[in-house]
Amino acid sequence: MLNHKFCVAPMMDWTDRHDRVFLRQFSQHTMLYTEMVTSAALEHGDANYLLKHDPNEHPVALQIGGSNPKELSRGAKLGEQAGFDEINLNVGCPSDRVQSGSFGACLMANPPLVAECIAAMIEAVEIPVTVKSRIGIDDQESEAELLNFVETIAAKNCKTFIIHARKAILSGLSPKENREIPPLKYDRVFSVKESFPDLEIIINGGITDLKTVSQMLERVDGVMLGREVYQNPYILHGVDHLIFGERAKDKPRVEYLQEYFPYIEEELKNGTPLKHITRHLLGLFKGQKGGKQYRRHLSENVHRQNAWFECS
Fold this sequence. Notes:
The chain is of the alpha/beta class. It is built from 15 helices and nine strands. It has helices at 17-24, 39-44, 47-50, 69-82, 96-100, 111-124, 143-154, 175-178, 186-195, 210-216, 227-231, 239-242, 253-269, 275-278, 291-301, and strands spanning 6-8, 32-33, 37-38, 60-65, 86-91, 129-134, 160-164, 200-204, 222-225.
């Protein structure tokens, strides 16, 4: 059974395969999530490319966006065949592009359709199928509506819900603003756990430190962090000890960087541009002496033609 006590959120343009390999070095137990991949892209695009990942990433979940049950079931099956440990349905993204495809957060207005999608995905695979949602959308944000949403989906044998503790405003706010402006309502997520004690409930939104994570775990089954991990990956350094009870690690930031060198070199040999990898490393020395110089050096040099990587 997968352990969701600590998770890193799926983040478009951020949690690609290079980033996930880097993050895995800091924590062996953290559950990682891919960027959202649409079921349409898996159906009509290069699925092998979209599903490519490194064996070192596990445990890792594939997040899929879509609203066509048959298409989602086929996408879930492709994800399982590619070796992912979990399939997660995106019911939380508020972007205009996602809404135009009739999926993401706007699906919260149609719990029966989400339930149909989940049922089709569960039938197609043997690995867990989970849902990531908001606490509501626009004016549909009451506790009763959220509980009805969860109950409707859970009736199709979905056992795990990741809930961003903000509602989504589907018009008038950008995705970035939707991550910051709607107020956080953690109690709404706690109420879901209290109402459905047999479900696995993971809370997400605005959490930036492991002390808060530990406090949250007294009320819910798991905690998911997003931007804080990407912008300060060293926060994962303490996760296995503080959250999973492993022996504390005494490893400086530079060692994590050095241990990533072989992966970088291998990717460069395979034709991956260096800038596609190093952009995920900018936050490693956040708040440290020399951190600004480190970020400046990467930013100024990685875009040079034929940029290469050397270590000694």
